[in-house]
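Reagents: none. Just compute today. Cold-shock protein.
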Amino acid sequence: MYNGVVKFFNATKGFGFIVDTSTNEEIFVHVSGLVDNIREGDTVTFEKEMGKRGPTATNVKLA
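Predicted 3D structure written out:
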């Protein structure tokens, strides 16, 4: 599990980005990878998978 902060999330379009707190890497997140509803500024835990365009956050939960 990784820890991060939601940098951007557009609930209407269903995607956004999480910044990994240990690496400062931006990770794409899609609504299909959410366990809890998230908003910008939320602290979350997540897992990473490689998507078509790079790392994608899955199993995203509020911390």
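Residues 36 and 61 are 5 Å apart (CA to CA).
Action item: order primers for follow-up constructs.
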